[in-house]
Design a protein that fits this description.
EC number: 5.3.1.1
Number of strands: 8
Strand order of the largest sheet: 1-2-3-4-5-6-7-8
CATH class: Alpha Beta
Structural class: alpha/beta
Bound molecules: 2-phosphoglycolic acid
Mean pLDDT: 97
Number of helices: 12
Protein name: Triosephosphate isomerase
Subcellular location: Cytoplasm
GO molecular function: triose-phosphate isomerase activity
Largest sheet: 8 strands, parallel, barrel
Order of helices and strands: EHEHEHEHHEHHHEHHEHEH
Radius of gyration: 17 Å
Shape: globular
Keywords: Cytoplasm, Gluconeogenesis, Glycolysis, Isomerase
Helix content: 40-55%
């Protein structure tokens, strides 16, 4: 068995206000038994406006669900209207922050350099970055998927210490599989996650590559999670649409039962 503890993360994107967030978190907690967390981490990533409410219910009921955010700014503070910093998230007991999601790259112009700065900011606040990478359909069809993902991983990890890389999470999410209902085959997902691991080995050494957790993301559902998780280099999943429903997300988290 792998020494890497799998992590299943729910990226809610811009869904659920703070009232809905409390209900969804409580339902998820009731659906998951203690044994579901044995050797598997579960995180949820609500919108910023929900974080304080969700932190409070997680704390009050001593839930084993980790709190995550979807983004942050690279600077600690300053004149950045509308932005939220990593130290602000850390104060809310946020443990994990998604960085460089393809929607942020495509819709908000995030570059590898910006992603790299955010990775460093998240680490500096003692949180875990979930750094996303993934190719477009055109890049896949042109045979450029591995090269694209390799350059995103190299750019995102530039100047990050090997022991920090070891504790990070990298999410491989082919853009053509996100929200489309079209999942990568488990063989393709495995091949790409293995490719990501070999880039990590090149930039941070084999020990870091052995420890770094690599998630697959893109139309993960209760029906395909077990097959994906059976692959050697897939250490978890970043789940969008199916994480909004606590029943579906609980079944995904309980993929071993
Ligand atoms: P999806 O989204 O599960 O709805 O495809 C995944 C993601 O964007 O992280």
């Amino acid at each position: 068995m792998s020494r890497r503890t799998p992590l299943i993360s729910g990226n809610w994107k811009m869904h659920h206000n703070h009232f809905e967030a409390i209900q969804v978190t409580q339902k998820l907690h009731y659906r998951l038994g203690d044994h579901d967390y044995d050797g598997v981490g579960v995180s949820i990533h609500p919108p910023f406006t929900d974080l304080r409410s969700v932190q409070t219910v997680i704390g009050a009921d001593r839930m084993k669900i980790a709190l995550g955010a979807q983004n942050c700014h690279a600077e600690e503070k300053g004149a950045f209207t509308g932005e939220v910093s990593a130290p602000m998230l850390a104060k809310l007991e946020v443990a994990l922050v998604i960085v460089g999601h393809s929607e942020r790259r495509q819709l908000f112009g995030e570059t590898d350099d910006m992603v790299n700065a955010k990775v460093k900011a998240v680490l500096a606040s003692a949180m875990t970055p979930i750094m996303c990478c993934g190719e477009t359909l055109e890049e896949r069809e042109a045979g450029d998927a591995e090269a694209k993902v390799a350059s995103q991983v190299r750019g995102g990890l530039a100047g990050v210490a090997a022991d920090s890389v070891a504790n990070m999470v990298i999410a491989y999410e082919p853009i053509w599989a996100i929200g489309t209902g079209r999942t990568a085959t488990s063989e393709d997902a495995q091949a790409m996650c293995a490719a990501v691991r070999s880039v990590v080995s090149e930039v941070a050494g084999t020990a870091a590559a052995d420890c770094v957790r690599i998630q697959y993301g893109g139309s993960v559902k209760p029906g395909n999670i077990a097959e994906l998780m059976s692959q050697a280099d897939i250490d978890g999943a970043l789940v969008g649409g199916a994480s909004l429903d606590p029943d579906d997300f609980a079944s995904i988290c309980a993929y071993r039962s």
